[in-house]
Write a structure and sequence with these properties.
Length: about 200
């Protein structure tokens, strides 16, 4: 027997396939701060096109913890310009990626300041998430920019912040990049960006 699917049903199937998985959050309601590694995540997340919740990359390459510890820094001005671009509605969720260069690394005090600044630039009562930069499970010392133990150090700082009741932030888990997903030791290649995007979807929908 030959079955043909009426064209209107095909149309329905296609529409269903591109629906966001969860009730649609407001577009661009989730901001982020962090370096190029955060942009790699945002790139992948945006390319999956399941949700427009997270901001796309906005030029935070090289913006490690110390770029965010002064609430009036050029980095925060960049963040505020992004908010203005989305009609001035401050994000109701902000994800903070702790990124470091091997020297100077970062202190927990600096991470706390960065988080407090995120709260200041977000909507009142915003939910704040904190993660480390990605780790490299099958090649842990891969990222020369952060140093051999740098990525794990950022994860440890993020976990400590998540466990600190005073900060009221959530640590959702680790980002991971495997060997075939890395282009220069640190950054994600195209496959890595997709993988990071999927990991972000698992955390945040
Ligand atoms: C903690 O953060 C949540 C948002 O994640 C907010 O609703 C709540 O008011 C905050 N609690 C305190 C004590 O600031």
């Amino acid at each position: 027997m030959h079955l043909t699917i009426p064209p209107f049903l095909l149309g329905l199937a296609t529409a269903a396939a591109i629906q966001p998985r969860q009730s649609s959050p407001a577009p661009h309601s989730m901001g982020f701060i962090g370096c190029s590694m955060a942009e790699n995540v945002a790139q992948g997340y945006t390319s999956l096109a399941l949700s427009a919740k997270m901001w796309p990359p906005y030029g935070t390459n090289g913006l490690v913890v110390q770029s965010w510890t002064n609430t009036k820094s050029s980095s925060w001005q960049l963040f505020d310009r992004q908010v203005a671009k989305y009609g001035g509605s401050k994000p109701t969720e902000v994800w903070v990626m702790v990124c470091i260069f091997q020297n100077p690394g970062a202190t927990y005090e600096e991470v706390k300041t960065m988080i407090n600044n995120a709260r200041e630039h977000a909507a009142p009562g915003a939910k704040i998430y904190v993660t480390g930069q990605p780790v490299y499970p099958d090649n842990p010392s891969s990222c020369f920019l952060a140093g051999a133990s740098g990525p794990q150090a950022t994860v440890d700082l993020a976990k400590r912040a998540g466990a600190d009741a005073e900060l009221n932030v959530t640590y959702p888990g680790e980002f991971k990049l495997m060997k075939g997903e890395v282009q220069d030791g640190c950054h994600a290649n195209a496959a890595g960006q997709k993988s990071l995007g999927r990991q972000a979807l698992d955390f945040w929908g």
